[in-house]
User: What shape does this take?
Amino acid sequence: MSLPAVLSSIPTRGRFGPGLAAGAFASGGRGWGRLGEELYAIYRDDGAGVFNEAMPAALVAAAAGDYAVPADLRPALTDTDVKLWIAANGADGAPHVFDYSPGGHVVRLSGGAAMDTAQKKFGPSSILLGGGKIVEIDNHADFTFGTNNFTISLHVRFSALLTSGEAYLWRQYDDDEHYIELKLSAGPLLLFYAINGAGNVIAFLTNSISLAVDKWYHIAVTCSDAALSLYVDGARIDVGARNDAFSALAANPYIDFSGSDATGWMDDLYISTRAEWTGATFTPPVTHWGFSTRATWNYARAGVGPDGTRGALSAAGAIVVDAAGLIYHDPGPAPVDLTAEARADGKIRLTWHAPAGAATTPDGYIVYMDIGGVWTEQERVSYGGRGYAWTSAALTNAVEYDFIVRAYRTVGGIDYIEPNTTSVSATADDAGPPAITAVAARMM
Assistant: This one.
């Protein structure tokens, strides 16, 4: 049974039973949720058929799907190359955040920094920054890059753009001669800069970028065998070389916009000892880093009366939880029979079918076009029946274009998108009769 179906099975107020049968359930701490005016408790199957009351309200307070589960229910990342992963999932205003990497580093929010559900790239929330709000991580050898490969990746969004000062997206600073920083400065300029001793510049990458308010940007810097790359939204804006080993720094790393007039949000900060991207372009992450690490557990629920007594348990259902503590919702299967057709007006028409007999129905399909090496969303086509078609705007004549179509569901404001990578291509033709090009599916 799906979570919404189980949610709908809560007894109405005033019809609670006398409580759970003695011996049938082990109390694991009171976990109450609220749905409208109803209170209920969530029970987890311990694997031996005993349902323990152990689920906090945070998991089930929003029936639509904005959930965060306790640590003992999240599947742990086992990828030891991941050195930091701040998924920024939490209740609105929560003054704490966690590192989900295997290292489990201590992360502190100060100066009013907090979870904010008003904006989010992935999951239910992001971290509000600016005006003295700071994210600080306890220093650790994991953040000594040395001569290793590495990636620093995060998503940022601005409510006020930087016009003066500096906004630090990642900074390790001991003194003016020993530091590593990824930052924005007036211009705006994006810079990655590292110094180890007087005049010893380890790395310096920079370029001017264009920013707008109320838009998410993916920013990353990678090091691969001493080759450095700086990226914005999957496009490399500068390259360089590591001139020496990055030094071991003593100060705590931090993220802080308050040295500038910028305000905004940060989401999904990730650091690894791999160069996740090395080419001129790539498609930025469409889900958080732990999205594919999942665990399934069974649950049931009972209504809670005004005096705390429990009603009868609902039927059991299953929840799939990912490594960020979010409940995963199956977006549905990939489309089938995808074709591309060049029309005489310079447009390209795609057609596809929904597979028959699918267990999950998507909300629809997202059409992506390869623009400069980045799969860029074009339009969402609502689900309805088996046959679908989409037509592009007029395109440049005699240029071949590549497309992908993926199923999606949006639950609680979160997009769940299946990872289909089979693309089709067609060459725009603005003269002559319509002609279907040779459509060869290729795997990315």
